[in-house]
Write a structure and sequence with these properties.
Layout: E1 2-6, H1 16-28, E2 35-42, E3 46-47, E4 52-56, H2 72-82, E5 86-89, H3 94-106, E6 110-113, H4 118-126, H5 128-142, E7 147-150, H6 153-161, E8 167-169, H7 188-191, E9 199-204, H8 213-223, E10 227-232, E11 244-247, H9 253-261, E12 265-268, H10 277-284, E13 289-292, H11 297-300, E14 306-309, H12 314-324, H13 329-343, H14 346-361
Parallel strand pairs: 1-2, 1-5, 2-4, 5-6, 6-7, 7-8, 9-10, 9-12, 10-11, 12-13, 13-14
Antiparallel strand pairs: 3-4
Helix pairs in contact: 1-14, 2-3, 4-5, 8-12
Amino acid sequence: MHIADMTMFYAPSSGGVRTYLEAKRRRLVHYPGLTHSLLVPGKHYRHHQDGLVEVPSPPLPFSNGYRFPLRRKHWLQALRDTRPDLIEAGDPYATAWAAVEARRELDVPVVGFYHSDLPLLIGNRFGNWASRGIGQYVTKLYQHYDRILAPSQVMAGKLTKLGLEHVHVQPLGVDTKTFSPTLRDDNFKRELGLAEDTRLLIFAGRGSREKNLHVLLHTMEQLGKGYHLLLVGSCMPEQVPDNVSVINHFCPAEELARMMASSDALLHAGTQETFGLVVLEAMASGIPVVAVRAGALAENIPETCGRLCEPNNPGAMASAIRELFTHDSRALGLKARRHVERHYDWDTVVHGIFQHYCAVLGTLEETTPSMQHG
């Protein structure tokens, strides 16, 4: 079996999609008889020995290294050269249409992974009229696919409402070795200049509008002394309350994992998460989560692992945080860790994805990896 992934969402500082693809690649190599290729944008056409294929695509200005494919013919030629048995398309742009053409020309099935809520993203910027048009575009594209994977129930429901069939929920995963409670550093609060009894809260990610960081800042103003928030990631706000610190740049996973494990809880005010990977990374790190009851976050945070509150309401979030710490937050964090190990470890997730491939290809026998890889 030869699987080819293709996506434009692959850049030096890119997030969830690249994490997903690299985690999958590291594990599929252990499946007997399976070959994996990954087609991503690059400056020139290059075919690496490890199956990575760079396809010529122009750079996207002001995008931290992203490239935006404009001509599908380069991607179609790369698929002709690769000759996969199944294609997974990871974005809804030129690469996706190249996959549709290859489906007809090469007579191979295509799986589409719907990572981003495109109608919502466009609607936020241009209004509901644009959102409706994009919904029609999504339907036109994804109706060509043999199976559609969505990372959450909320995303699957939106695709079904667009009239699409063959939609399946396939959660993403977490590297439970990289994100671990064992990385907790009791000196971390001291490094930040905080007292040991300070409740250290953390948020990590891009400071984009849909993350609603202003809600977190107003929440910290209400919490006041005794609580401190660490914001980690790019495009973070410059003016923050006294009980907020900012690390305004992308941090490697190993560095972020230490920060998370050394914090007391993660905060998330975003209302438009299609999955919320950072929530699962925090839970894998052994800390509970306080998030808003919106998007996919409500699916991923059981009561035993944290607290959910009303969206866009700093008072409600502050109350949820105070209530969280009336309990043994460390015990909640350990329950969160066990929940992630049981449901979201990458080995389990990738095996589920492989089963989707087998179903689409009509493969009856179940191939198992020759070894487990963390």
